[in-house]
Structures are given as C-alpha cells and as structure tokens.
Design goal:
305 residues; mainly beta; Immunoglobulin-like; 2 domains; five-stranded antiparallel β-sheet; elongated; disordered N terminus
Length: 305
C-alpha cells in the first residue's frame, strides 16, 4: 500500500481536526446545494482481501453534475458503519500534473480528511498542507463506505484530477488530550500505487422554454395579440428576467411589425396589432430571447378570428 511520505502528516492533521474551534467546525460541515442529475460517472475497481482485519475498499465511483458538484462514493462493505476508531483521507492532484503540488505525494494539492465525524479540506501552500479557505461545499455521509461531495470550484475549478482513497481503522484517541495512538492502525488504499484519474464533464447550459402563452386565446382582427415566452436556464432553473427579445410575425405573406418587443415580468413578450382586414387569414408568430449568449425561441400559428 502507498504510505504517506511526509512523516507524521496524518498525526498532524488528526490533531488539527480534534482541536479546531467550535465555530470553525460548524462552518466546515454546512449542507450542500441540491444535487442535479449526474452528467458523468466513472467506476474504479480495487483489489480486495489484502488484510482481513483491515477496512477493504472494493470500488470507488466518482461522478459530477452539471453544476460541478463532484461525488466520491468509496465502497467499504466490511465497514457498514463509521466507528470512532476509523478515518478516511484522500490525496487529490487538482491539475493532474505531478510536477506541481506536494512533490512527496505525487503532486497533490489537496487532502480531504474525514476523522472523528468531521470532514475537512487541506490545501498545499508550497511547503505544507494547511486548512483550505474554500471548502463550503464539502459534505460527507457513511453507509457501507464514505460518500464525500465537494464542488470543483473548491478544488481550483478542476476539470481533470488525480486522486486516491485511504480508509483506516484501529486509531485510538485520548478523549482528554486529543492525542492519537496509531500503533495498531490497519488500512486499505486505492489504488495501491499512484492515482486514479477523473475527468469532470459538464454539459453546457441552455435556455429551456417553460411555457408559451397567448393573449387573447387567438388573434382577432383589429385587436392586439401577444405571445409571452417563459424560459429558464437548464443548469440552475432560474427564469430569464432580462435579455434581448426577437419577434417575427406575419399575416399570410405580409410581415407584421411587433409593437412590443421586450422582457416583461419574466417573459419575453411580443405584441402585434392585427389588421382589421386580416380575418380568416393565417397568422404566424415567433418569439425568442437571448441572455448571456444562451437562446430560446418558439413559434405559433393560428387563423385570425
């Protein structure tokens, strides 16, 4: 198994976690935003049965959603619960470049550590790993293994990274001093040597048409007619509140100029004055909106009443 090449790093981090002030601990365990559907998922198989007395990682499944939230699922079937003698930590090479980061640990820039019920992110500062100032997205749970979630933005906006996973048991903590006795530690590391590599894949956002409404129900000769299009971002669900509106209308083969062409109360709005002589003719309209380079549009057709 790969060992920590920086002497005493686990001990130093473990003691730092135990002695963190209450305010800092609370800030490190905030809830994450609601997860979107996974846009990408990769499974990694680990060898099993190396040490019957140790935690045994079988697989690791890494996925991300279109908001850049990364989920690590580390399956450890022989440890259904996280007991007080256990800990987990991961080295992460955020730029997948072993020439940067900690030279003693394959270029890792980050360590995620779960110990004594706290999950914390540490960042390489050029000489050591220190508490990261960006880790608001970091959360964890345990059920037959660890599930750890963190935003790519808290890992330097990574799009490709290397990582490993390490599960330990047999740790003994002094309840008074917080000192750690690791003399009877058993562990499993995945992979045994080196790092796995994962590619963060995010589907570019689009504008999605939520609904198209008319006022009145159908175009009427000699009266105004309005199309209202409500569009929302695919990544956040936020309804477009401004942007550039395009309107195209026609009666038969004759073009019809829109009198209103703007976003009104969260809807791209187009209003045309239907000519009095248009009764019985075909009206065709199209309303579109462009916001931050994203586009949405929808057409409409009806006979003029």
């Amino acid at each position: 198994m790969r060992s920590l090449t920086r002497p005493g790093i686990l001990l130093a981090i473990a003691v730092a976690v135990v002695t963190l002030p209450t305010v800092a601990s609370g800030a490190l365990s905030g809830s994450s935003a609601p997860a979107l559907a996974a846009a990408n998922s990769t499974s990694y198989q680990d060898s099993t049965g190396e040490d019957p007395a140790a935690p045994d990682i079988t697989t690791i499944v890494v996925s991300n959603d279109d908001a850049g939230m990364i989920t690590f699922r580390i399956n450890v079937p022989n440890r259904p619960q996280l007991t007080p003698d256990m800990a987990a930590f991961m080295f992460i090479d955020g730029d997948a470049n072993q020439g940067t980061g900690d030279p003693d640990n394959l270029g890792a820039e980050y360590i995620i550590q779960l110990i004594q019920g706290e999950v914390i992110l540490f960042k390489w500062d050029g000489s050591d790993f220190t508490l990261s100032s960006t880790q608001s997205s970091l959360t964890h749970s345990w059920s037959g293994g660890a599930t750890i979630k963190i935003s790519a933005s808290d890992l330097g906006n990574t799009r490709r990274f290397g990582f490993d996973a390490n599960i330990l048991s047999g740790l003994v903590f002094d309840p008074v001093t917080g000192e750690l006795d690791a003399t009877k530690v058993r562990r499993d590391s995945a992979p045994t040597f080196g790092f796995y590599t994962y590619q963060v894949k995010i589907t570019p956002p689009t504008l999605v048409v939520k609904k198209l409404t008319t006022a009145p129900a159908a175009p009427a000769a000699g009266k105004p007619f309005t199309l209202r299009l409500v569009a929302a971002r695919s990544d956040t669900g936020a309804v477009v509140q401004n942007g550039r509106v395009t309107c195209a209308g026609s009666i038969g083969n004759a073009r019809l100029k829109a009198q209103v062409q703007r976003v009104v109360a969260g809807a791209a709005t187009c209003t045309w004055n239907i000519p009095a002589a248009a009764k019985g003719k075909a009206f065709r309209g199209l309303v579109g909106v462009v916001f931050e380079g994203l586009k949405a549009s929808q057409g409409y057709a009806s006979k003029v009443r």
